[in-house]
From TrEMBL:
It comes from the Bacteria. PANTHER family: DIGUANYLATE CYCLASE DGCM-RELATED, REGULATORY COMPONENTS OF SENSORY TRANSDUCTION SYSTEM. InterPro entries: Diguanylate_Cyclase, GGDEF_dom, Nucleotide_cyclase, Rev_trsase/Diguanyl_cyclase. Its EC number is 2.7.7.65. It comes from Luteibacter jiangsuensis. Keywords: Coiled coil. CDD domains: GGDEF. The keyword Coiled coil applies. The keyword Coiled coil applies. Residues 90-113 are annotated as: Disordered. Residues 324-454 form the GGDEF domain. This is diguanylate cyclase.
Amino acid sequence: MRLDNQLWESKYHEAVERLTREEAQWRTAESLLRQLVGCLGRVAHGAHDQVDPHIERLSAALSGTMEPLALEPLVTELAEAIEGLGARPRGVNDERSIPITRPQRTEHGSSVQSSLSRLVDRIVILPRLADRANDLRHDVADAGDLVALAACGDRLADLVNEQRIGLQREIDALQAVLRHVTGRLDEMSQYMSRELADQSTGEANGQALDASVAHEMRLLGEAALEIDDMHELRERVNQSLETISLCFRDFRDREGIRLTAYRERAERMRLRIEQLETERNTLQRSLEREHELAQTDTMIGMPNRLAYEKRIEAAYESWQATMRPLSVAAIDIDHFKSINDTYGHTAGDAVLRIIGQALLKHIRPCDFVARYGGEEFIVIFDGADEAESLQVCERLRGKIQHLAFHASRQPVRVTASIGLTQFRPGDTPQSVFDRADLALYTAKNGGRNRCAVG
């Protein structure tokens, strides 16, 4: 039991450390979002004289350490100012928003939209926020002006902040559980200390009884040598036996009290242990479920980027120890934005689900596939070199090409490009991913619907 409790205490500590690392990642993401919203503000600066002061105040606040809740009034003021003015650019009389396609905004708008879209795709979203994240991803893709993109940036900042707060709550909850379990372990330790002390008391009582009996026997032996009268000797023997009997009764009474208290403590501890076992099993199931959800893309029903990162770290450690071949492939759906634009996001989501399930079905049993973000998937080929992995990639590409997609009762042709690379001496998971990503762009630039090796 002690080893079992130590194991769970260690697992609780590991969970708290993991959540602390994730919170740090979310703080980094929040910092990046602040920079992105600040960039949006600089791009929009100059659109209206009356809006510019609000943008300047918000930009100044974003550059500091102001908490998200404190930023909310500034964002509200800016939104009200834009709404009140109809977001008219300086010198323009109509009430259209600033279109991304205007020459002076094309470069900035496209860059901001692309950056925001990549940021949404790369963030690992908690399962309970997955639907909101998916809606935001669609809205970023549909945003037609800088005001809409700024609103999406605000929503993403809110989403990241909610995740950060949620992670902090999970950390607090786990710490509370750890304190609870630690308290129970301390209670058990105190119980064992009391039992050891009680055992010492029992041993002391036994030693006292032995000493008393030995003392009476010694006195009786001395009396037998000194007393000649048989009647007097008999009386002395009776007195000694009575004294010894009293010692035994006193010992029995003290031991009875001690054993009764021991049984009561043992029963209380048994109930405590049963309760702790129940709590542990409940917590274990809950943690396993949360762990599973955190590593699952809920829309597609397959592992997500967090699951990939954990899997690639384990595969990397194994590769370092054995140098067994290990390869990684990045898979991206060709012209996915045009599918969303032409047939709608519902059709795009259906394409993602069907391709994701096809990849799960057609990879080798020893391989691993996850949705990395957006329309990109990633595969780990464990024990396969580039040549063997390339054969699997070509098979996967062919399977995707021949999948039957229909939207609005019309067939939709869907293909994918794949970038593949193998771990080499000196590589890290990040360097291999970057190389696979570069190979993917090589496949894209080479005409799409093909595999490239990096």
